[in-house]
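Bench notes, afternoon.
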Amino acid sequence: MSNISHRRGAVSIFVVIFTALLITIVTVSFVRLMVRDQQRASDGDLSRSAYDSAMVGVEDAKRALTRYYTNPAAHASVDLSACNAITGLLTGSPSTDEVRVQTTAAADNQLNQAYTCVRVYTQTDDYDRAVAADEAAMVPLTTPPDAGGSPRQFDRIRIQWFIETDLTGASLNLPASGTSVLSEEWPAGRPPVIEAQLIQTSSTFTLDQFDARTGASQNTNTLFLYPKRIAEPTVSFNSDLRQTPKTTVTDAGCTPTFSERYLCAITIQVPAPVGGAAGNRSNAYLRLTPRYKGAQVHVTLYNGPVQPDNLVQFDGVQPRIDSTGRADDLFRRVEVRVESGTNVVYPNAAADVSGSFCKTFSLTDRVEDYARGSCTP
């Protein structure tokens, strides 16, 4: 009888031990999960705060660019690509130290936020932005000065457009053959037609030169770039739509896959301006308008065949800001493009209405003859 009682006591001890071990394991597991989730929440908060710090640097860079372009001659010696050189424009005292982010809440001070390095590059290799359907993007074709102080010249413009996210869930639809025609209906998965207009002048010009052709020289040209499953072509702005039947469009080359970022591309040769030597222009603008749907557009300039050695940079058209922010010991780095400096707001139309448009007018020399009329837009 005593032997049986001894065995029952041993079983109870083993049950208690295994139960305690199980409870310990479960408790430790929950504690680990709680600590890990707390760490993730803390890292996420620090990451967002570091991002906010970097964006503070971007906003300060925008303010510095405004002051820089307000009086370029006075700030010619400022190297904005140097780390935190913007502090000299903002405070008058250049400093390479990090800039603390001022906060209003006491809890935010514990994050110890700052942007550690902000660099601004006014000269960029390209112009890149998203453009909505029927929205015009006016791109100043402003280039850096050459050794002689004159703007670097270019004779080719490469336009690329339509990235994978522009499909918005639709299946890709690219015509491979047949007549390229504009129509009221447009397939959902087809890249948009790009209306590309060149406006340029030499050092002197008259308004009538924008409607005249002087040999191969022109001051304004318009092409409608039609997406087609062909190799990327090289065309000329001289094949102006207004100089040919109105049904004429210009085929652009589009690949069937997004092996590169942009699906469609075309290279357009730029004529010399009226009254200027070949390639000698003092002002030039490119106006891009996607028709039927929006798209991401990308513009690069070349002086000669399209290859890296012939790339001509933009100057002050779409500055690139590289900002690094910090929150405690976690860093975030962002890069953004801003349109400022030489790029200002250009009107798209003299009158722009979403509905109908009508007007009533009469010609008289007596004020009492004025009548409002029955026109109701």
